[in-house]
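Q: Give me the 3D complex with iron/sulfur cluster.
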Amino acid sequence: MTAGRYRYLFSPLRVGPVVLSNRIVFAAHLTNYAEDGHPTAQHAAYFEARARGGVGLIITEEHSVHPTDWPYEKLIHGFDESVIPGYRRITEAVHRHGTPIFAQINHNGGQASGMYSRLPVWAPSSVADPMFREVAKEVDHREIAEIVAGYARTAEHCALGGFDGVELQCSHSSIVRGFLSPATNLRTDEYGGSLANRARILLEIVAAVRQAIGPERALGVRLCGDELIDGGTTIDDAVEVARMVETTGQVDYVNTSIGVATATLYMIEASMHIPPGYALFIPSALRKAVDLPVVGVGRFKDPIQAERALADGHCDLIGVVRGQIADPDFAAKARSGHAEDIRLCLSCNQECVGRMGLNRWLGCIEHPRTGRESEPDVSPRRPGRRVMVVGAGPAGLQAAIAAAGRGDEVTVYERADAAGGQVRLAATVPNRAEFGDLVRNQLAECARLGVNVKYGVDVDADLVLAEAPDAVVVATGAVPERPYWAPPDGTQVVDVRQVLDGSATPEGRVLVVDEVGFHHATSVAELLADRGCTVQVVTPGMVVGQDLGVTLDMENWCVRAAAKGIVQTTDCLVTAVAPGSVALMHHPTGQPREVAADWVVCAVPAAPAEQLYLDLKARGGIDVQRAGDCVAPRRAHAAVVEGHRAGVAL
Ligand SMILES: Cc1cc2nc3c(=O)[nH]c(=O)nc-3n(C[C@H](O)[C@H](O)[C@H](O)COP(=O)(O)O)c2cc1C
Ligand code: SF4
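A: Here is the predicted complex, encoded as structure tokens.
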């Protein structure tokens, strides 16, 4: 499909005083790139990469409007005028490519704690947020006026910093959301009760911000279409608020969102378990009610899907956030007719959302450059070196991409008849298929770079020496480790990989042992429950699949597990396995327990498959690197980062 065939996606649109060249928006998202409340050179380089990649509009992460709002360490302090030089660095970098950029401004209200600010958090009512669990200070009228003034002051800083517009985040984590929602606004004064009263602060902020930025900058309002909480706002409220916002005559567009950041965050940044298009009903309803341009957001992964939403009239603009975190050239590739070259986001949440929750800078599991754009890229070396990569898992393929990108002639050798290693197995599980796009994307990039991939070849040191490459990357992965408590000869105890590759087919009562705390145990538990097994997952941890919380997969796993009758047992270690039963120890009390089970499936730490690397080192005389699980078995991001590092270090 060529650019001309994206009739809607690449058509221009006027948003108030700003003309966008296409409909793709890099909507607001935290990056944790700020330092001491200030934007950094990394912000500028990050946004510039997406501007260069052809996006129609960039909206930055939120900037705080008041010192009482400091829910996480690396929040930009927009209320402080010392941010202006950093703003200018960002806007100049983005404007070099003719791309407009808006700043999102916000006060998170009660969805915060005083951990950083050492101040009480401000909210419409003294309601404790379910995640921060801190009771808020109910703001009085003087404090409301202070907040409104903070929005205006911050908007003025944005204008001085060169932003083309300002967006008010009133959607999923905001004091304005707090006022709009009957679940968090219990007031009986003129800011509580009716929807008109609950929207009063929003309209005051709109008026103050418009006055601060003047008519030559755009003003947008981001609204939540359904909070998905008891007593929260719903689509009917959102439609009414959008009408009120339009009636002011001061707002140029409406952006949308779903969920509340602290109670239903897993719906805002939905993982692959939630189908694409799940939030489209929101812009669709708003667009019918107002004439302002409406932005639709939520799991837009590819340009064809975005084009469809526009063509069907659901929205005027498409937010593509994770899609452009993964591939800064998303828009340019679609426009030039190379949509199949887009590095599709996996909606895995591992390195973007996941790292935010851990207070780390934003990255991407698939793209080692995300978050490191301000660092110099490696320059291409003179071509001609022959590189051999052993293993076509994520580490090996990324090493091949990095080396071939520098001009090396690369051949990848894979023992199996398909690429992907453990990623390929992980993607065989229902609802996890998108994880397999990691390998699809890598293979597509290898093909573009002329990498030769040979399947069904078992590589040993003799073969490497016979091939006599200039350099070798060993990426041979990991092998399952049999736990000490497993009987040596028993077929009754198997690894998750054996279940996924079909070499073991447990039946009846199955105990899944989760010692790694991620998708391994939960995926296989679901798979076996779907096949009719009676499944129990046991973990020594406090919850099964502990890190599913980090990727926002925990809530839906618990719902699915309950629906499938999967029993979750925590705080227990396996101590022995006998035919038909497994002995456990409840470690907080030391008490023994017994579980009836016909099969035990292990999700336990693996062992590095490092023999080839050690053999080559022992033989000497060859430039050899290793990457990924054959160094130390970890998750896919480590394989990709290390593969990249090995490929450029050759
Ligand atoms: C890491 C991350 C941080 C986010 N932070 C914000 C934010 O500061 N303000 C906001 O309005 N939305 C924020 N969002 C929500 C996004 O704007 C968007 O609604 C969400 O990612 C769904 O779009 P996508 O499926 O294209 O990623 C964030 C999203 C991500 C992935
Ligand atoms: S880490 Fe995963 S969800 Fe996040 S942008 Fe990258 S591929 Fe998408």
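A quick observation: The chain has a mean pLDDT of 96.
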